[in-house]
Structure formats: structure tokens, C-alpha cells
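Reading is simple: the C-alpha cell line describes the chain's fold. The lines below illustrate.

. . .
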Amino acid sequence: MLPDHNEPREPSDPSLQGDCANCFGLCCVALPFTASADFAVDKRAGQPCTNLQDDFRCGIHTRLRDKGFSGCTVYDCFGAGQQVSQVTFGGRDWRQDPATARQMFDTFPVVRQLHELLWYLTEAITLAPARPVHADLRRLLDATTALTRLTPEALGELDVPAHRADVNTLLLRTSELVRATAGAKSKKKNRRGADLMGARLRGADLSGANLRGAYLIAADLTGADLRLADLIGADLRDANLSRADLTGAFFLTQPQLNAAQGDAATRLPPSLVRPGHWAA
């Protein structure tokens, strides 16, 4: 029998949440985007978005979807913006100190990857079934934190894929331990990397499923049971999560939810918030 909730999770670490007030608009400058359903215009890397104001805040933040910038609403730097702005570069912004611009923009994506790993590691340590690997998770958490404090030069030379591989080994073991609490049937639900775009999964029993990297774009998951499912990297763009039960689902991030559709009856892990655009 599935537990109603895995275990209560600790509140999200504020340092792993975007703090735009202490960032120099890095996601609005450093990253490129192409005119599409997600972005209204083209923008090259290093070019400030036309909506970026002098105070580094977005001029249309509350109207991004209406203005054709829904892609911005599903992006999360996991706190890398303020880390690079205030720690790595000591509060020197790229407008006042243009000499830092190129290096700052190159550093931001590296730290963003590290902060995403910190997010997963931090969550993994709160999962009681993963207790056998908690010590190793804490070791990698400390090591990853130390990497985020490197100089821009050292960050530029960092082999992030190699470090990510080390972290992923432990996250996979964490997933196995947590999903095992869903019972033996979870072993038959390996949908890792599966192409489930537009799939009709209304009311499906996906409890304890491995959905790592699964393509669930526009899938109908209405009323689906996703308790204790591993959702790391799952593409939930336009997936219908109305009335779905995601309590105990893990490695699920706010950007994934923001990209999906849902309603007031969708049950979420306590560490995440219901997106404002979801149906009432």
C-alpha cells in the first residue's frame, strides 16, 4: 500500500530560489532565445532583452504570457543569478563594469547547472527511504557547494558533465530506494526517456514510476496517480495534470509545473506552489 505522502519535506533553501532583486538580470541577457511559441522575438546570447529595465527587473513580468514570452515563465535559475551577481562577481554589475560582462555571461550557465544539482541533492537528503545514501549525498552536496564558490576562471575550466555524472549515480540510487516503497509493481513502470507525447494517460496508475527524462508534452494525465514517481527532467509542457496526485513525487521542479496545465484539485508536493495560470 502506498504511503499518502513520502515524508514531510523541509522548506526549499532560499539560496536555491531565484532572487531577481539581487541579480543583474542575467537570464535576460546571458541566454539566447528564438522567436517561437515561447518567445515573441529573437535574442542572441549577451544581448539584453528589450523588456529588461534599468533596475535589472522585467518590465512585463506580470504579463509575460500575454506578451508572447511564456518561455520566461518556465525558466528557473535555481538561485544561480544572485550567486554569480553577488558572490562570484562581488556585486559588480555588467553595466557599471562592462569589462566583466562577457565573463559573467559565460559563468552564469555553469553556476546554473551546479545550482540545479544542489536542488536535487538537497531534496534527496530529505527523502527518508534514501537514508542508506544520505552520507554520500551530503558529501556531494558539500562538494557541489564548494564548486559554486570558485573564481570565474576556475568555473570556466570546470568539467560540469563529469561532476553531473557523479551526482546522477547517487540520484539514480536515491530513485530506486524511494520508488521501492511503492511496492514491487513499481519495477514494471520504467518509462525512463519514453516518448509519451500526447499520450492518453487519464487515470493511469503511475505510482512509483521511473519517468526520468520522459517526453510527456501535451499528455493527458488527468486524475493520474503519480505518487512516488521520479520526474527528474520529464518534459511536462502542456501536460494536463488536472486532478492528478503528485504527492510524494520527487525531483519535480517548479519550472516543470509552470510548463504544465492543472487545476485546484491537482495534489502537489508541499515544496512546490500551484502555478497562477492553472484553472481554478
Notes: The helical segments are 70-73, 80-88, 101-126, 134-148, 152-156, 160-179, 254-259. The mean pLDDT is 92.
